[in-house]
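Trying the structure run again after the queue cleared.
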Amino acid sequence: MKTRFVVLAIVASALMLGPALAMTEAELAKACKADVAKLCPKVPMGGGKILECLNSHKGDLTTACQEALAAEAAKAPAAGAPPAKQ
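Done. Tokens:
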């Protein structure tokens, strides 16, 4: 039951960010559902704590979750990168 709540919370957060991100976030939640339940069951939601937990267990993640996290990281701007020109 708690896992469903975590997945629903991730999807709800994605929907608030916009339709373009929603599908990616939903795919990430689906791909990492079992990993979150196994590796991060007591991690509180919010502030990117679940993503931090998953990233700290990269060697233990399923292939699907590893790929979803890599895709998510690829679309995020690099830390310290200058803002994109508009």
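Helices lie at 2-17, 19-39, 49-56, 63-75. Worth checking whether this holds up in the mutant runs.
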